[in-house]
């Protein structure tokens, strides 16, 4: 097969969690052009993915998109979610093999369907892998072993260390105080407390970098001001021109702390240690939305499970957060 299209027009975090699936495809089919259909906000970042050969951005112009897809002459179309609009875009692609998840009635419009429901103890990134694995098995193609790290940007690490003002011997900890909205927001005072405790418990110099997106700058400024009278090295991140630059720059971090899953997932691509704050729910979002970092590098904290308590991030034991994360970093010397 010469060309394969995978449809994943979703948010940044959801796109990041498809990288294992992209890895499986490109590794199993090195001579096949792996192409993706993504939302506009993700398009430039998708072009940085080493497992993707071409990107089609969802412009919303369905007439033009249908023409683009039809003209591409795909052999295979894999759809990450069963939606009528997506079916209408790909139905005349001429692909001999189309596959969609067993979800909603639209699934029956595709030639092949797969149950891509992952186990409760697995992260939702497994859903994309199950889709791809079904396709590979159907074609008697061996399923590759997943790597420990999905994005090797190590050759640019020194550049980003310089960008963030890193000094020799320092640990670099990124703190992103915003939230994606699926859980409550961690208070500025709790971030200040956590940063102060980490600074005191670490056995080596440390520099904290406050990252932000859009109006989250105010949060970063307030936290920075709250620590202005301390001896803690803390900076507000310098603005970068693109999501791709920010995502790549995380290679400089020794740890990434956030209550927003999108930035955490970007850190996971580099196998950076991640510290996430999640809502306390029976659905276990801290497992479902776990990062792609290796298990020993994933730290997840939640308030007690409950309708009211589950979104009250003030109920997280931040003393425990500081102790466990400091122990991890101290052990890396």
Can you describe what's shown?
By secondary structure, the chain is an alpha/beta fold. It has 2 domains: 3-138, 3-Layer(aba) Sandwich (Rossmann fold); 155-330, Rossmann fold, CATH 3.40.50.2000. The radius of gyration is 21 Å and the shape is elongated. The termini are far apart. Helix 8 packs across helix 9 and helix 8 runs parallel beside helix 13. The protein contains 13 helices and 12 strands. The chain has a 6-stranded parallel beta sheet with strand order 3-2-1-4-5-6. It has a 6-stranded parallel beta sheet with strand order 9-8-7-10-11-12, sandwiched between helices. Keywords: Glycosyltransferase, Transferase. One of its GO terms (biological process) is lipopolysaccharide core region biosynthetic process. One of its GO terms (cellular component) is cytosol. InterPro entries: Glyco_trans_9, LPS_LOS_Heptosyltrfase. Pfam families: Glyco_transf_9.
């Amino acid at each position: 097969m010469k060309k394969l299209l995978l449809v994943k027009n979703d948010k940044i975090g959801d796109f990041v969690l498809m990288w294992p699936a992209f890895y499986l495809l490109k590794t199993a089919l090195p001579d096949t052009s792996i192409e993706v259909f993504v939302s506009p906000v993700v398009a430039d970042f998708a072009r940085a993915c080493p497992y993707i050969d071409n990107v089609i951005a969802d412009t919303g112009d369905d007439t033009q998109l249908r023409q683009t897809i039809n003209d591409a002459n795909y052999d295979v179309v894999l759809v990450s979610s069963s939606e009528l609009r997506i079916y209408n875009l790909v139905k005349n692609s001429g692909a001999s093999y189309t596959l969609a998840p067993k979800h909603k009635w639209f699934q029956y419009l595709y030639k092949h369907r797969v149950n891509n429901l992952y186990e409760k103890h697995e992260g939702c990134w497994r859903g994309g892998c199950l889709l791809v694995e079904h396709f590979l098995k159907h074609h008697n193609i061996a399923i590759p072993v997943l790597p420990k790290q999905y994005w090797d940007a190590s050759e640019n690490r020194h550049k980003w260390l310089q960008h963030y003002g890193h000094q020799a011997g320092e640990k670099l900890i990124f703190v992103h105080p915003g939230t994606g909205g699926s859980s409550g927001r961690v208070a500025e005072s709790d971030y200040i407390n956590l940063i102060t405790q980490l600074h005191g418990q670490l056995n080596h110099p440390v520099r904290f970098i406050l990252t932000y997106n859009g109006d989250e700058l105010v949060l970063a400024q307030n936290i920075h001001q709250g620590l202005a009278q301390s001896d803690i090295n803390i900076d507000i991140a310098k603005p970068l021109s693109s999501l791709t630059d920010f995502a790549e720059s995380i290679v400089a971090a020794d740890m990434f702390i956030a209550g927003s899953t999108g930035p955490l997932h970007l850190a996971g691509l580099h196998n950076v240690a991640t510290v996430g704050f999640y809502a306390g729910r029976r659905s276990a979002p801290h497992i479902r939305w776990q990062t792609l970092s290796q298990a020993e590098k994933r730290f997840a904290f939640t308030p007690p499970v409950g309708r009211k308590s589950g979104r009250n991030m003030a109920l997280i034991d931040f003393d425990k957060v500081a102790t466990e994360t400091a122990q991890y970093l101290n052990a890396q010397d």
